[in-house]
Amino acid sequence: MAPARIEEPNLQREAAVASRSFRTQELQADVCVCGGGLSGTIAAIAAARNGVSVVLVQDRPVLGGNASSEVRLWILGATSHMFNNNRYAREGGLVDEILLENLYRNPEGNPLILDTILLEKVREEPNIRLFLNTALMACDKDGDRIASVTAFNSQTSTMYHVVAPQFIDCTGDGTLAFLAGAPFRVGSEQRDEFGEQFAPDAEYGHLLGHSIYFYSKDTGRPVQFVAPSYALKDVEKEIPRFHRFTTKEMGCSLWWIEHGGRLDTVHDTEDIKWELWRVVYGVWDYFKNSGRFPEAENLTLEWVGTVPGKRESRRFIGPTILKQQDIVEQRFHADAVSHGGWSLDLHPADGVYSEIDGCTQWHAKGVYQIPFSTMVCAEVPNLMYGGRIISATHVAFASTRVMATSGSNANALGVAAALCKQLGTAGQPLDPIKLLSKDNMATLQRDLMRFGQYLPGYKLKDGEDLVHQASSVASASGDFVLSSLPPDGPPKVLVRSLAQMLPLPQGSVPTFGITVISAVEATKLTVQLRGSQKAYNYTPEVILAEKTYDLVAGPNALSIDFAVESPQTQYIFLCLLQNDSVAVATTKTRVSALMTVEHECDQAPPEDVGVDAFERWTPVRRPMGHNLALTINPPLAAWAVDNIRNGVPRPTKRTNCWVPAAGARKLLKVEWKDTTSISKVVVHFDTDYDHALESVLRGHPERAIVFCVKKWRLLDLSEGEEKELFVEDNNHLSRREAVLETPASTTALGIEILELNGDDQHVQGGIFEMRAYA
Q1: Which of 195, 280, 497, 512 shows a CA-CA span of 20 to 30 A to 112?
Q2: Domains present along the chain, CATH in parentheses
Q3: What is the pLDDT of residues 525-537, one digit of tens each?
């Protein structure tokens, strides 16, 4: 046999020349998104899914920015770890989709798995061309418009020249907006400029710094640590809050290892990083070698961030500057495209070296709207601002800066880019700022709500939705009606005040029955009925009625008749005030849009900071947090099937949810007087919008939300027959689309719930929304 032929590789020769240039590649797209943090990733996907070609430029090797494995900060927003009164506040759209997918694949909170999810979401979009390790270098303008950007990939030694009619800046520091000459601010406004009473003084500082996180691991045997020479030498002397260090708190729990608030947080970032490394390795040396932490003997330092998590730098100016009052007063905006709910969260500029607390957090009584006019630039008409650089004061930025809020804004930017393309003429898209006109904004808000975005105070009025046009909507099984919840749950001792939230209509309040399983002694139990000043809030600040009951030692059955009226349709709070001598009965039954909360603490700000004092009532996470075992007379009928077409796919002042009656076929039926052609059906299931779904570090006991429909099908019910049009199994997401290969011509359509992700015996989940299109 002849030996295999060996091919000689080609040899490339180049003679010496005076100089060379990098290889250049020309790219064109409908929109160029600069920055691939969570905001840039979401903006790109949202645009791509709405028919826009996208070039996404990211200067890091992975997507996600502060959420990625390079930094490892959890994604949070309006839910704020469920530590505020913002019930059912988790962001919708792609933020919701990403967090639910992460829960399903990654309940342990591994940041590497989150990296794969974000990369997969982008790679699956044929309209996106992704360029990692590619840093924005320059921008060229044609008059006041951005004509192109130049970016360099250090791994491929390639210079990219990207031409697009629209640009979205999600770089974090506003690099593109800066190069394009857009107006910006850095630091804090004076209190009298906008009347913001929470604006900090110079002693507190005007910028938030950076943080670097670290992880440790127990190796099962003693591990020696020799600190690098640059490590901080005397932690107890240098760090005033050293007593707060514990080996049990790593990663995000040590967010207060923060530095840079007195420096230039753009240009001094490398210096800030070195100082943070100095602190981190000094703290670890303190753990390992001070002798104060014997529990650290077997611990090794597994990971230290190489990229600091940056909080604040430039804020770019739009037609509207969001202010403290917009957040605290929950002001209405006609151009609302997103929402927030994180606290006003300011940090001392001295960070880890400060003697005062690492942050000052004041919450509003509910969520607030974010207007589109904070995301566009009057001076650069084809530029939109994404991420933390939107138009806001330093104080308002303290709330809007967090990732889930920024991601919700990015939903709006991607959909806006698509609408600009749609409304453009002669191949030139409409400038984003022109979406502020009344008609264009109404269209943008409609498109956003179709996409799954939540806009507080708005409901989807969709003239093309055939379910809204249907002659009737009915449930074959009947609707869930709350008359009683069985006392089969664990006893709940009232070590804190407990409240059952109940969605009541305006008018007479029913009579409630509860069971005191045991009172260890003769005592008194005070029961209050509370509501909120604003119907859409969940701050139980208004006491509508109060009764005190004398309890005997042992079990007691209470009938509670307040004989009052609820002044408005809202969630009311049946509050059992703290008495640790009393245990009440709970139930294992869980129902969509029904929950209990406990009095966690009181927010008591100084009188001069412009923030409200109120009580914070928060839920206990599953598997705890049971509903009260109770009876209601007359029964509460708040889960009617017609809720699926009221335009609001989450609880607000109502459940906005259909829950089928227990023990029957879970089928809803939509009927039309005339034969109707349907090619797409959109369904919105309950994935518990109250759950924060932190993306990393904090683990979750569930892989899928118990209320969420796991298996369902779409049926043609014309003329009394059943024809299966679509079936899906193993679902764990909120918003699902059934796209039919062949449009169905029908007079009746059905959706049947076949299985939930939770225990069908104890969980009654439902459907928030159904829409259908020709």
Answers
A1: 280
A2: 24-186+332-337+363-450 (3.50.50.60), 210-310 (no CATH), 472-478+641-773 (2.60.120.260), 482-636 (2.60.120)
A3: 999 999 999 999 9
